[in-house]
Amino acid sequence: MTVRAQYTQLLKARFSSELYLSRKSKKLTQAQMAQLLCMDERSYIKLEHGQSCCSGLTLLLFLLTSGDSAKFLENTEILFESAFE
Fold first, then answer.
1. N or C: which end of the chain has fewer CB within 10 A?
2. Dihedral sign, CA of 10, 15, 18, 19?
3. Which residues of 4-37 are buried (b: 16+ CB within 10 A; e: fewer)?
4. Residue 3, Cβ neighbours under 10 Å: how many?
5. Which of these, 54, 70, 45, lies nearest to 9 by C-alpha position?
6. Cα separations (Å) of 22 from 15, 29, 31?
7. Rounded to an integer, what distance in angstroms lies between the CA atom of residue 14 and that of residue 2?
8. Range 21-27 contact pairs with CB under 8 angstroms and sequence separation of 24 or more
9. CA 40, 44, 47, 49 torsion: positive or negative?
10. pLDDT tens column, 3-56
11. CA dist., res. 2 & res. 46, Å (int)
12. What is the pLDDT, as a whole number, of residue 1?
């Protein structure tokens, strides 16, 4: 597996978890969260279940609406760094 593929797998898992936690904390349905991220519900469900990786636009929209984008990025950086030590 290439390093890029490894990063993709890590991001899918991390983003999946963050989407779920964010949605639950905001008390939104999957359909509402999909609407917030300007995507269809089926695509959102695949993201939340870790079946697909987010696009740059989806990631940006999530960061803008998450309330704590710095924390998300900081934790993702730590995850990436620790994965290759």
1. C
2. negative
3. eeebeebbbebbbebbbebbeeeeeebeebbebb
4. 9
5. 54
6. 10, 11, 14
7. 18
8. 22/62, 22/66, 23/48
9. negative
10. 899 999 999 999 999 999 999 999 999 999 999 999 999 999 999 999 999 999
11. 23
12. 82
Residue type for position 67: G
**Quick check: helix, strand or coil at residue 49?**
coil
What average pLDDT does range 55-65 have in this prediction? 95
Q: CA 82, CA 85: separation in Å to the nearest integer?
A: 5
pTM value is: 0.86
Secondary structure letter of residue 38 according to DSSP: T
Find tokens 């998450």 and name the residue: 66
